[in-house]
Amino acid sequence: MSFYMGVDGGASKTEVVLAQDGQILKVVRGGPSNPQGPMGLEGAMDQLAQCLRDAIQGYDATHLRPAVLGLAGADFPEDIEAMSQQLARLVPWLRYAIVNDTEIALLGGSRTGYGIVGICGTSTNVLGIHPSGRRCQIGGLGYEFGDFGGGADLAREVLHAAFRSHEGRGPKTLLESGVLERMGQKSYEGLKRAMYFHTIHPLAFLALVPLCFEASLKGDAVSSRLLERMAESLAQTVIATANQLHWEDGAFEVILAGSLWEGVSPVLQDHFRRLVRQVYPQCDIHLPELAPVMGALLKAVEDDDQASSTQWRRKLREHKDQAQGV
């Protein structure tokens, strides 16, 4: 009997799931596999290839149907071609299709396979798929391209606010003391030098993201405003996507995918929901039904045997706790 494989590769982690007949056989987790990150293309594809090899170990690869790799950084055909060239060398036995990670987040997170997904993780991205087949993708390339939000942007804003609080250039905030603690520094002079001379790991700043949510939960006005700004940008992008798809009745799903949506402070989610529903009051805003890697698995099944995809979705939902634990 055939095996199916789905992959979710992002800026902070890689997840691979192997399944058969709607049952999860194996889950493998590894480090980041976004070629736009510090590891670069070769390092990212090395990490991905190792996860793929670990996932198929102990199983007959000749029974593996074409996998679906949902990868952050797969924004243009040139990106996919560059990734494919590396993978052809590293895992020549694998047949696969590469799609952007927004697509698998929507397929796994939605109840119907249609709607709009707003990703808010290390970065942000928004994709909408209409039942008619119309598609609209906005964002995902960074601040210079009109985006704002996600862990990288939020960490930068936390640092900005903390320095201004310390130096008396801005309002006092709990972030001032929290930043030093999270960054392992005794003073802002020490932090300044560590940042200036690049002695801090490039991903270390992501530790400041949960700090912002924690300070907001304690009533810190500066932190809450940072989360509101991010919600405003994401809401604008989702509304623009819905407008471009001409979703006249407004009764569509909005899937909140990515770790930041589940931060301990409710400010990000609450403000986002309020803004989107001012324009589309009938939309169904919810957290994902299944993890993005399950969306990749469902797409692999659908691409190979569309008639089976509904049954697979049902089976995965029946074992939702296992699927969500991926």
Automatic annotation (TrEMBL):
Pfam families xrefs: BcrAD_BadFG
SUPFAM superfamilies registered for this protein in UniProt: Actin-like ATPase domain
Family annotation (CDD domains): ASKHA_NBD_eukNAGK-like
Record domain ATPase BadF/BadG/BcrA/BcrD type: where: 6-300
Name this polypeptide is given: ATPase BadF/BadG/BcrA/BcrD type domain-containing protein
